[in-house]
Each structure stands twice: as structure tokens, then as C-alpha cells.
Amino acid sequence: MSYQLELRHLKYFLAVANELHFRKAAEKLFISQPGLSRQIKELEDSLGLKLFDRHNRQVKLTHTGLYLKEELSKTLKNLEAIINHAKLLEDGNDGKLNFGYVGSAMQKIIPNLLLKFTKDHPNILFSLKEMDNNKQIEGLLSQEIDIGFVRLERIPRGLSSLPILKEPFCLVLPKNHSIDASNYKKLTQLKDEHFILFDPEYSASYYEKVMTIFDDHGFTPIISHNTIHAGSIYKLVENNFGVSIVPKSLINENNSNLKFIELHKIKQRTTLYAIWNKDNRNPILDKFIPLL
Fold first, then answer.
1. Measured between alpha carbons, how far is 140 from 34 in angstroms, rounded to an integer?
2. Which of 55, 128, 145, 157 could make a disulfide contact with 98, Cβ separation 3.0–4.6 Å?
3. What is the pTM of this model?
4. Domain-terminating residue out of 85, 103, 122
5. pLDDT confidence of 2, banded at 50, 70, 90?
6. What is the number of domains present in the chain?
7. 102 and 219 part of one domain
């Protein structure tokens, strides 16, 4: 029997493929379980393919089904993006660009890029979300975001990157600390202090690079707190819970409760990268990348 293949069949297939459970998939789709089973049977008959193995209430994707799931997920994501872009055009906008970023990128890098880009493209909408490095990778692969700004040494296959800023690290101290730029000699002066650092979840490679700074100075730091937000680090330092090391671009000159000492004599540097998905079909992304 031949059935007309419709978009809903593909959405129903992906729901079951993701849940591997007909009842749970039916609940998410707000349809009955028998109705969903019938739609999947129509899809398999129409394509002449077996997509699922069903044994004693267990549902598994066949090799063919797994391939179809991976390819359809990409295709439908692109279709959704195309439709959303068309809606923006209908509303008088040229498009939308979704950003993910680590906090340091918002100090100067992203604002400057947006100012330059909007001069030639004034009708673009922007969505900006602070995210740790791993969340950005996930968002780029799923195309929930279009471009990210990360501190990572390696990226997954399928993503492109461009170094934006290579910079030294800085010490962050409370304003009443006895050490300042005039009497700072080396990091061992702070070996008995508590350190507040970015969490390894922020970026494992970034965290390891910071730890090599301590290795080079021959001591293991006393780490009292980990966080993924610079603002949290600064609040803790302000209140004398410890000291910190951050990228130079996170220097906050407007915070009179802190003082910063640039570690320009050490070899370690940290690099901020712009990163995007090669398969992203957002036409605004193609216009933005040359600005980088």
C-alpha cells in the first residue's frame, strides 16, 4: 500500500527515534499511541524501509533508522532555520544571529563587532547568551546558536574556529591586600593564599593552562572556590575570600574594590576563539564571519 509522505511523518519518526518509546513519544506529540504507531507504519511502508526493531516492548533503531535519524535531524533543523528567517524578512528584519560567549568576550570584543556590523546591517536582530565552553559546543552542533566565543584548544570536527585575541593573565586581589604592582615579584608570594578559579567545567583546557602557571612556580594552589562567572569571582575576592587569576580582558577598571596585576613575565597566554558550525545555513552568519 502506498501513502503520501508528509512532514508530520518525519517529525513523528524523530520523536520515536529520540525517545525509543512509543508511549512517551506520543505524549510529547499530544497524539494517541495507536495513532503514532500507525503513522510510523505508514512511513516505513511508504519508504520501503524498516526503521525500528520491536521486541517485547523494547524499541531500537535499525541501522537504516539510525542513519535516517541523524540526517533528518540536520535537515529539519535547517528547514526550521529557513522558515524562521523567512518570518523575520516578512516582519521587515534582515535576519537574526544567535551568540554564545564566555564573559570576557563581552568586555570589548562582541560590542565592537556588533557596532561595526550594524553600520552596514541595521535590521539584524541579535540574541546574546553567556554560556560555558561546553554548552556553546553543544549549542553550535545543534545549531541553537550560530556563533560562539570560547577558550578551547581543540574543537569537534564539523566546527570552524578563528583566534580573536591572545592575551596574558592577571592577578585579582582585594584593594586592601598587602601586595600590589609595586612590590609584586613572583607568584610564590601568594602560595599561602586561597585561590578562586574558573571551574574546570568552564573549560578543562583553560583550567589546565592556569594550573601550569602554578606548576612553573613550584606549588599547588589552595583552591577554595570554583565558578564559571567572573562576577562571582570578583564578589568573592572583594570580600576577602581569596585571590584569583583571570584573562587580561576581564580587568574591571571601574571596580575600586579590586586591584589587578598583569602577569606579563610568565609564558602562559590564553586565546579567545570565534567558533561556528560549517553546516549552519543562516545567511547572516556568512556576512558576519568576514568581520572577524
1. 36
2. 145
3. 0.69
4. 85
5. very low
6. 3
7. no
Which residue type is seen at 240?
N
CATH number for position 242: 3.40.190.10
Spatial distance between the Cα atoms of 95 and 88, rounded to a whole number of angstroms: 6
Q: What is the pLDDT of residue 116?
A: 93
Whether residue 147 lies inside any domain: the answer is yes
Q: Is residue 1 part of a domain?
A: no
For residue 235, the model assigns a pLDDT of: 95
The residue whose grid cell reads 520523536 is: 15
Angle between helices 7-19 and 63-90 (to 10 degrees): 120
For residue 77, the enclosing domain spans 7-85
**Mean pLDDT, residues 76-100 taken together:** 73
Closest of 14, 76, 9 to residue 45, by C-alpha:
9
Residue 90 has pLDDT above 80, yes or no: no
The mean of the pLDDT values for the chain is 89
Residue 270 CA to residue 249 CA, distance in Å, equals 10
Q: Which long-range contacts (CB under 8 A, 24 or more apart) does 238-242 make?
A: 238/174, 239/174, 240/174, 240/176, 241/194, 241/196, 242/193, 242/194, 242/195, 242/196
